[in-house]
Amino acid sequence: MPDLSSTQEPPVESALETENQFEQTRRFWNASPCDGKTDLESRRSWRYAKYPWLSALIIDIASRHGDIVEIGCGQGTDGITFCQNLPAGGRYRGIDYSGESVASAKQAVTEATDLKVTPELAAGNAEKLDFETNSVECVFSMGVLHHSPDTEKAVQEVFRILKPGGRAYILLYNRSSPKVLAAHFFRGIQSALDFVFRTDRIFYKAFYGKHFEGVLGTALLEGFGVPVLRSYTHTGIKRLFRDFKTVSLVRCGINLPAGIAGDQSGDIRDRALGLLFLAVVEKP
Ligand SMILES: C[S@@+](CC[C@H](N)C(=O)[O-])C[C@H]1O[C@@H](n2cnc3c(N)ncnc32)[C@H](O)[C@@H]1O
C-alpha cells in the first residue's frame, strides 16, 4: 500500500512523457487508492457514513442476484459487503485497473469477517472486460466509468457481458452536484495555470501528502489529480445507456457529512444536487 500520509512528491508524469491515459489512470489510482485509509474497518466506517444509502443498496442487490461482477472494485470495501450478504453458493468477482487497489482489496479480504462467499479479485480493464459475452447476471460499478478514458466503450462492454435480462447498477457523477461543478471549475483553472506556468497539475501537487485524507478522504486528490473526470446530465445518462432498458434513474448521495444530511439509511430518493446518478439498467 502506498503511504498516503507522507509528504513526498506525487508521482505525476511530466507533460513531455507520452504515456497514454490508461497508464496515467493506473498510476493515479495506484498512488491514491479510492478512500485512502490503511485498514478495512476505517474505510468501511468512512465510506458508509459518507454514502449512508450504499450498504442498503448493496444488501438489496445481493438479495436479488447470485452472480455479481464489480467493475472498478477499488480497495474492495463494497466487494466485502457483497460477500457478507450474498447467499452461500453465490459468486462475486471484482476487477480494477489499479494493481495496488486490487492488492489492497486482497489484503482487506484477510481482515474481513462473516464472508459467505469468497471474493474473486483481479486486475482488469473496464473497456476490455475478460468475461464471456452474455455470461453475467449482474454488474455493479460505483464511481468508476466516468474515470475511464472511453466511458462509452466501457458501457458497451457492460452490455456485451450481461445475459439478456441481466441488470447493471452503475453510479456516475451528476453534473448538477456542487462537488462535481466545483471539480470541473477548479480543474479548468488548474489547466489554465499549468498552461501559463508550464506546470503539471499544480493544485494536485500542492495538496498531495498534506494530510487532508482524514477529513476529505481522497476527494481533493481525485478532483485535481485524476486524469479523466466526466459528469452527466439526465439526458446524457439516457443517451449513454440507450441500448438498455432503464429500470430506474435517481441521483443520490448529497455529499454532506452524515450528521448534516440526517439518517438516510436505505433511503434512495432522487436528490437534484446528489453527487451520483444511480442508473439501474437491464439488457433486453
Ligand atoms: C473513485 S475509485 C472507485 C473505486 C470503488 N468503486 C469505490 O467506490 O471505492 C475509481 C476506480 O476506478 C478504477 N478504474 C478507472 N478506470 C478503470 C478502467 N478502465 N478499468 C477498471 N478500473 C478502472 C480505478 O483504478 C479506481 O480504483
In DSSP terms (H or I, runs of 4 or more residues), the helix count works out at 12
Low-confidence stretches: 1-18
Give the structural class.
Answer: alpha/beta
Mean pLDDT: 85
Fourth CATH level, the homologous superfamily: Vaccinia Virus protein VP39
Strand portion: 15-25%
Helix content: 40-55%
CATH architecture: 3-Layer(aba) Sandwich
Please tell me about this protein's structure.
The chain has 284 residues and is an alpha/beta fold. It has one domain (1-284): Rossmann fold (3-Layer(aba) Sandwich). The protein is 40% helix and 17% strand. It is built from twelve helices and seven strands. It has helices at 21-31, 40-50, 54-64, 77-85, 99-111, 151-161, 178-197, 202-207, 213-216, 219-225, 234-240, 258-261; strands at residues 67-71, 91-96, 120-123, 136-142, 162-173, 245-252, 276-282. The chain has a seven-stranded mixed beta sheet, sandwiched between helices. Helix 6 (151-161) links the parallel strand 4 and strand 5. Helix 3 packs across helix 4. The structure holds S-adenosylmethionine. Residues 25, 29, 34-35, 71-72, 74, 96-98, 101, 125-127, 142-144, 147-148 line the site of S-adenosylmethionine.
Write the layout of secondary structure elements.
Layout: H1 21-31, H2 40-50, H3 54-64, E1 67-71, H4 77-85, E2 91-96, H5 99-111, E3 120-123, E4 136-142, H6 151-161, E5 162-173, H7 178-197, H8 202-207, H9 213-216, H10 219-225, H11 234-240, E6 245-252, H12 258-261, E7 276-282
Parallel strand pairs: 1-2, 1-4, 2-3, 4-5
Antiparallel strand pairs: 5-7, 6-7
Helix pairs in contact: 3-4
Bound molecules: S-adenosylmethionine.
S-adenosylmethionine (SAM) binds at residues 25, 29, 34-35, 71-72, 74, 96-98, 101, 125-127, 142-144, 147-148.
